[in-house]
From TrEMBL:
PANTHER family: GUANINE DEAMINASE (PTHR11271:SF6). It comes from the Eukaryota. Pfam families: Amidohydro_1 (PF01979). SUPFAM superfamilies: Metallo-dependent hydrolases. Its cofactor is Zn(2+). Keywords: Hydrolase, Metal-binding, Zinc. This is Amidohydrolase-related domain-containing protein. It comes from Amanita thiersii Skay4041. The keyword Glycoprotein does not apply.
Length: 455
């Protein structure tokens, strides 16, 4: 596949590159084999040996951007997203989350229906990679893995592990059965991928202790050993809400970060969601262990009494990306997650709510739209440890991309919600910022993952 036109990416935090009049070549393996200006000798040679039918020429009003990485999404909760955000976290789990997940586990037809629709929506929203929480039942999670693989999405699927629950009908029977179930899922999910050529293996299993309140020490210890045995990733929730943090302190006598650390669950292959109640020294611990964070600004507003210390985490070089946290957040749209991250950070800056360990008020807490675009693309890819250079356009990286159309070149008018009052003349930074602020699915023409067009 050959594409000519404008390419936009954010290779580092705060940077934005608009690369006009370029040629990008994707091989049958979905890897970028060539990326250079159109006028370069090699580009001209490639084009001279290609037929016009092989070349996708982007019009002046369009650009190609890396797909988004959603680092935290509860797949079964998509069934009721946009509802049930009226309770504190621990009560919300009882009233809404556990019920929905139990229903998915007992209704296989429903699982297929919900997960297929979720995959469709993720593609519409430009998400190419997603870290998913599933349910307890192995079969339901295999369905989730199959749906994501068939849809062509990069998906990290986590079978929930929880041997403690406030809902008697939604809990694993014993610690031993929970560990056997987790190991069975890992083996089956890995076999699902191994039957495919290497470049088509898009789905991986993730060990998923829900969070400390639902996991015994024995379960956490066993999951730490399974992660090492099978070289698989780990995901969970860390220091999310006041009631959850207080519960751990009362029941375990320590912070939940200490619990995860004790059982070797803070590693370069771990991704922890939220982390809103972590101290400066805690963030340093995550950096030291190379543990990544999924920042979910919308659900933090609903379920945390504190915002995540995003600027501080970035300054400590913690790996951070963004998550939608369905259904603690009400939309799987990563563009909303970017906007909300900026809004929350600006409120922190205005209120000066963050204090360092010496009690001094921190400054410069706000992030801007370019920084969140990095977090949603390249930063998220790094946090997920995706293949080489995913999230930027570079030779050797997989072609995970979305085509964005901001204006019609024939009529010189904006697409979807975008309006322009001066004649547009190619893609510029102001146009991209306007799309970032108000764009929607009407601006998304195509989505590719590993070179395969999904939309």
């Amino acid at each position: 596949m050959l594409i000519t036109g404008t390419f936009v990416h954010a290779p580092t935090l705060g940077s934005l590159q608009i690369l006009k009049d370029c040629l990008l070549v994707v091989g049958d393996d979905g890897i970028i084999h060539h990326f250079a200006p159109l006028h370069s000798c090699k580009s001209q040679s490639i084009l001279s040996h290609s037929s016009p039918e092989q070349v996708l020429k982007l019009p002046p009003g369009s650009f190609v951007l890396p797909t988004f990485c959603d680092l935290h999404l509860h797949a079964p909760q998509y069934m009721y997203h946009g509802n049930g955000l009226d309770l504190p976290l621990m009560q919300w789990l009882d009233q809404y989350a556990f019920k929905a997940e139990e229903r998915i586990d007992t209704d296989i037809a429903l699982a297929w229906r919900v997960y297929r629709q979720l995959a469709k929506r993720l593609i519409e929203y430009g998400t190419g990679a997603v870290m998913l929480f599933g349910t307890i039942n192995v079969e339901a999670n295999i369905i989730l893995a199959e749906v994501m693989q068939t849809a062509g999405l990069r998906a990290f699927v986590g079978k929930l592990s929880m041997d403690i629950s406030t809902r008697p009908t939604y809990v694993e029977q014993s610690t031993q059965s929970a560990l056997l179930s987790a190991e069975s899922f890992v083996q089956r999910c890995q076999r699902l991928a191994k039957r495919l050529p290497p470049h088509q293996r898009l789905v991986e299993p993730v060990l998923t202790p829900r969070f400390v309140p639902t996991c015994s020490n024995e379960l956490l210890e066993g999951l730490g050993k399974l992660s090492h045995k099978y070289s698989v990733r780990v995901q969970s929730h860390l220091a999310e809400a006041r009631d959850q943090v207080d519960w751990v302190r009362q029941e375990r006598g320590v912070e939940d970060i200490d619990v995860f650390s004790q059982f070797n669950l803070l590693t370069p292959h771990t991704l922890q969601a939220h982390c809103t109640f972590l101290s400066s020294s805690d963030l340093s611990r995550l950096h030291a262990t190379e543990t990544a964070i999924a920042h979910c600004p919308l659900s933090n507003v609903y379920f945390s009494t504190e915002p995540f210390k995003l600027r501080e985490a970035l300054e400590k070089r913690v790996k951070v990306g963004l998550g939608t946290d369905i259904a603690g957040g009400y939309t799987p749209c990563m563009m909303n997650a970017m906007r909300q991250a900026v809004i929350v950070s600006r409120m922190r800056e205005s209120a000066k709510v963050a204090l360092d360990d010496d009690g001094r008020t921190e400054k410069g807490l706000a992030v801007d739209w370019k920084e969140t675009l990095y977090l949603a693309t390249r930063g998220g890819a790094i946090a997920l440890d995706l293949p080489r250079d995913t999230g930027v356009f570079a030779i050797g990286s997989p072609f995970d991309a979305q085509e964005i159309k901001v204006y019609e070149p024939e009529t010189r008018t904006g697409v979807g919600p975008l309006d322009f009052f001066d004649d547009p003349d190619g893609i510029d930074e102001d146009m991209i910022e306007k799309w970032w602020c108000v764009g929607d699915i009407r601006n998304r023409n195509r989505v590719w993952v590993q070179g395969k067009q999904l939309k």
